Amino acid sequence: MTRWQLVIKHVIGSKPVLPLSLVTLVARAAIVTVFASSASAHLADWNTTLFLFEDEYHLPLLPPAVAALLGVGVELVGSALLAIGLWTRLAAFALLMVVTVIQLLVYPAAWPEHLQWATPLVLVVSLGGGRISLDALLERRLATIWSARPNP
């Protein structure tokens, strides 16, 4: 193959160019910045947070104080879990549900921004935390422990 054929094959080829662990790490970091910053802002002024949940967000079925606690709690815990790569699929799914609620019930016109949040979350739900995560470390550790056990 000529050099140009190799370049064209590489550009249009279907093999990953970057390691998926790097891709998932970047996706996790991007989402952590969004939700950790939101949780931090909500926690910095809880009275304003309660006001927003009462007067602007209008979530059905939940009292505003409960909705605020759940929303900020998921943002805080979910972003922390994604940052360290622990239970990444569960954390990403929980944050994806927050994005879905925001999209459907709070700011439906902001779908372009919500799509930018949802895309890396779907990637992490699909691929997991990657090799650079506590999930991968635990998986390797458990595989070692389980392989050492005798079969009954």
UniProtKB/TrEMBL annotation:
Keywords: Cell membrane, Membrane, Transmembrane, Transmembrane helix. It holds the Pfam family DoxX. The keyword Mitochondrion does not apply. The keyword Membrane applies. It is a multi-pass membrane protein. InterPro entries: DoxX (IPR032808), DoxX-like_oxidoreductase (IPR051907). The chain crosses the membrane at residues 20-41, 61-83, 90-111, 117-138. It is found in: Cell membrane. Belongs to the DoxX family. This is Oxidoreductase. It comes from Roseateles saccharophilus (Pseudomonas saccharophila).
